[in-house]
Structures are given as structure tokens and as C-alpha cells.
Amino acid sequence: MVKVEVTMEVGADGVAIIKMNNPPVNALAVTVLAGLKEKYDEAMRRNDVKAIVVTGNGGRFSGGFDINVLQEVQQTGNLSHLGRVSVDLMINTIEDAKKPSVAAIQGLALGGGLELAMSCHARISTPKAQLGLPELQLGIIPGFGGTQRLPRLVGLQKAVEIMLLSKSIMSEEGSKLGLIDAVVSPGELMTTARMWALDIAERRRPWIISLKRTDKLESLGEAREILKFARAQAKKTAPNLPHPQLCLDVIEEGIVAGGLAGVLKEEKGFNDIILSETAKGLVHFFFSQRATTKVPGVTDLGLKPRQIKKVAVLGGGLMGSGIATSLVLSNIPVVLKEVNAGFLQQGINRISANLKSRVKKGSMTQEKFEKTMSLITGAVDYAEFRNVDMVIEAVIEKISLKQEIFSDLEKICPAHCILATNTSTIDLNLIGAKTHVQDRIVGAHFFSPAHVMPLLEIVRTEKTSPQIIVDLINVGKNIKKVPIVVGNCTGFAVNRMFFPYTQSAHMLAVLGVDIYRIDKVITSFGMPMGPFRLQDLVGYEVSIEVGKQFVTAFGDRTFKTPLTELMIENKRAGEKNGKGYYIYDEKRRASPAPEVKEIIEQARKNSKIMPDGKPIVVTDREILEMIFFPVVNETCRVLDEGIAIKASDLDVSSVLGMGFPAYRGGIIFWGDSIGAGHIYSSLKKWSESYGGLFKPSAYLEERAARGIPLSAPVAARNFGSRL
After folding, report:
1. N or C: which end of the chain has fewer CB within 10 A?
2. Quick one: how many helices (H) and strands (E) in the chain?
3. Active-site annotation holder among 135, 253, 393, 634
4. What's the pTM value of the predicted model, to 2 decimals?
């Protein structure tokens, strides 16, 4: 086991090299922070030490404060774990010391790592080192003085951008801004840093205390204008989040009252915000994302992922071309197969358009575009499939067609080849029913657009080989997706969890609730769009086809809406023809469509479920709960049936697959924040009035009765899978 430690070596030149060692990123764990304090105190006492260089082991400076400590504080409420790092270490020990410090940066200096570097009197870096303060991604603010020192080193405008957008910069840009004093090669880093430190000690270079600088700060009037604009932007883009506004308040305190006052306000704000619900949600989501690749009985068997050198994609439609784009962006050669040359060219053109959009945005050069496109081979037969390592089928959702394809693939592809399907709902056992290689068949469910959406749902059957799953998890990571391993059922995890989402919204609509009010409540909660706006985007035909599969599988708890078919009868197709529940202009901007009111009235008459023919009266809170509690309920069934391994996987799936707000932690984490008891009693009451869509699951009922969190691991399944 690698020893977590801070070491110090004093050279003949009188420079003490203090080195942090906590692989892989030298996180500032409590022991590391204590070690830094101890070594600094020793360096101050020693007469043979003239100056200090602080650096990190293994080619990295520091990735920041140990996030495990944040989680521990949130779980215990014990703030003493945090100490007073910003004052005791960063100011009293380092910045105000009688001997100067230089930070020697390689690889990265992020969060607390950059704050440590900014407390030093100079910063020397190697090229391409990543610098940033990404704390706001975790629902907190910089807590080691970063809100005060960064504006003083790079100016307020740039500092606000770096902090509020959690935007990292490279050391070259840092040098231009004044954050980095010199960029040198890795071989010259320590020599340069030592000389720089001695030059400061011997007054050949200025002894600069970042916290006391004001030369880079804008005038007070200009600073207030910058902060006013930033507050308005934060309120617009993150209306439910308190920490961006807190960050700006803390920055302003330092500009108005001085750096030390700003640090003290930052310390108090950091300690308060760490215990907020949004911080707890975002920290939970952070850890949950990193746990998705741990699959008991699969990833603990010692299996090594095999190299996937070439992948074939069947189907060049929107999904197939998006999947192919994801693969070639990660330098994986792709064979794209279509039924004829015309469709093939359309598929290649879609991939080209996906990549050209990157060129247009400046994130890809023309040379890189051409090199990436050269990784694509077009095919109208299976000749190129004889040497591929994986096939991803992405044709239309027709069982007989998929069965025929997989029978062909079994005969043509090599014996080691992974046979994957991108189906979003069809049972994998049906797809592979006519093959003899069901151990190699797996679901690789991408979300649209496949080259943009970060989730990859890996669907296994009882026969899928663990090696295949390990291989596909590795492919997912290589193409920068978050892989979630789930079981085989209608809708798998994400689509199954969320099928009640749209159905509950439709039930509310025919019960008399205004559809635009429903959408507004849901977007105010933090979803990117409401259920009716989403249906306009997805398309009504798709909604009907998917709905049929859920009615077949879960007929006792589905609501068959008359509204969608009425919309089609009235020649409304959503975004497709610019007329849906909303009207769309040429820029896809949506506005309510008054004429839809008559169609909704017809749906209400047809369904005949309004009590006494009158619209129900509900609060916004009740609308929110009537839409999301059934989602929590179905998620409980997914857990109970073993479709998902752990609740945190479903939290990640809900955020990355359906846009559930990350700051609420995910669907089960949010459910636990509400409480199983309230969710159960609400659903039971609604089920008595409105039917099976709201019927509480046995899992939810049990958790509510026993006071157990929904997220607590499922015990040994002596009760089996239940409805």
C-alpha cells in the first residue's frame, strides 16, 4: 500500500523541497494538510533553510481537497474535520512566513491544490498543466482562500469566469494572465523553482503576497458591475442553486473590505454551504458516478478488458451515426453498414456533420476532422465484419429484423466478437433467441444524440459472459461515457423508471390541470424541459410505440392517454412540423399553442376521469409529487427486482439519461430526502382515487413501514421480486 506522506529534503543551496505524496492526484487529505504544516514549521525553525519549494509526487501537483472528507462532514455534521486551513496553513504558515515559497506545478493544480499554489510567493509550471477552481461543481465554494487570491492574480472578470463555470485553463494561459510566473520544461522545473525561491529570499525578485495585491483588481465601480452581471447570469442559469451567489458575495467582501475579511467570510460561507442539500446532492452524485464500474460478480473476478481494435455499427440513422461518431472521436476505427449505397452515404454525411460542428466551434481542427473521418469504412454487406471485435446493431425496433441480423452476425463475425444491440426496450433474450451465442449478446443502449449524451446503459441477460461486460465497460470509459450495468427487462433501467413520468403528466392533463403549468412546475424543479415539451421533441409516434410496450409489460399500472392520438389526428407532430403542444419558430423556440386547448378538452371528455366532470384543484407541490413519486415508485421496483445493482447507479442514470437535476442527487437520493413514508402515503391516497399508476410497490411499502432509506442495500432476497 502506498504511504500517504509529506516529505522534506534540504539541499546544499538552502532550499527545502516539500513534496506531497498521495496517489493518484496528491489529494489534500487531512494527513497531507497536517504534514504540510509540520514540514513548514520545521523549515521555519531550521537555520539551513533559506527558502521552500512545494511540489507533488508522480508528475502532479495536487488535485485538491480530499472529497472523502467532504462526504464525511456531510454525513456526520462534524465541521472540525475541516480545520482552519485557509487561515492557519495558507496565510499564517505559508503566505506570511519569514521564508518564501515557490510552487513547482506539474500535471494539475485544481481546487485546493491551486489555492495552495496561490498562497506561495511564486508559481513555476510545466507546459499543459491544468489549473482551476472547480469547487462549484460540488455545490460548494473554494475554501482555502481561492475566492480572494485568484481575482488578485488574474483580475476579477477572468476569476469569476474560472470559478462560476468551473473552467480550467492551461499553464500557458495562466502565464499570460499572471497566475503562473514561468512555464518551463519538466526537466527544468525543480532547478528553476529552486533558483526563483532563492532569488526571492535574497531580494533579487519581488516577495509578492497574493492576498495583499490590488494592482490586478478593477476599480470598485467596475468590479460591482462585473459582479452584478455575474449574479444575474447565475440566477438565470442556476436559479435553484445558492452557492454561485454565495461565491460572488464572498468575492465582493474581499474587494470592498480587503483580502483577510474576504478569507474570513469565505471560511464561514464554506462551512455553511457544505451542509446544504445541494452540496450533499452533488457530492453524492460525484461519488455515485465513480462507483458505476464496480459490478459485483463481474469486475471483481480479475478479468482484464480485451482490446477493441475495430467496431462495426449496423444502421446509419441518427442513433447509428451518433454511436459511430463517439467511437471515431476516441480513435476507434468503425465499419458503418447500411442496406444500400444511398442510405450508407446519408449515414456517413451525418457523421461528417457531427464532426464539422466541432470544427465550427473550434474544438477540432480541419486536419483532425479529416483524420477522424478516415477511420470510417462504409459497407453494404458483411465482408468487413470478419475481423471486427464488436458489432453494435442500431436498426429500427423490429424484433424479426434484429433476430435475422444476429443470426447472420453469429455466422460471420469472429468467435471473440461482442454482439451488442442498441435497442431501448426490446428483451435481449428475444433478440438472441435464434442464435447459439447468447453469452456474447449484450445491450449497449446509448441515449440520443449518442455522441453527446454521456450515459451508456449496458444491459446483460442471465447468459451474458462477465468478460463481455468487462470489455464493454472499458469501451464505455474509452469513449468518455459513464457506463451503468443493468438487467434485462422492458425499458431496462432508465426508460422503465421514467415511463410513469409522461403518463402521470397526461393523467393530470385529462384531470383538468393546465399542461403549460405542469411543464413550468417541472422545469422550475430543475428538469431541462417539462413532459409535454419533451414529447414534442421525441415525437408522438415514438411515444405511442414505446407506450404500447409498457402497457403490455406493466398493464396493471399504466395510464393509456387519449391525448397523443388526438394530437396526431389533428396533424400535430411536435417539433417535426413545428406544431405540437407548443408552436415552434425557425430557431426551435417554443411558445404555447392556444388551439391545443380544444384537443385537450376532447381528451378530457373521452377519458371521463375528472371527478364530477370538474377539473381537480392541486398545488404546484402536488403536481410535482404526482409526476415524480410514481417515478420513485417504479425505481423501487427496478431495485427490488435486481435490474440495478445499487441505488446510486439509478441516481446516475436518472441524471445522465433523463436530465434529473444533479444537485438533487438523483431520483432515489431525492426520494430519501422526501422520505419513504410521505411518498408511500401520497401514492396510496392517489391510487384509491386514480388507479394503478399510483399503486405503491411492495419495496416502498416495506421501507416506509420499517423506516429504512430507499437507498439502503437490498438484503438477501428471501422475499424475491415483487410488484
Report:
1. N
2. 28, 19
3. 135
4. 0.93
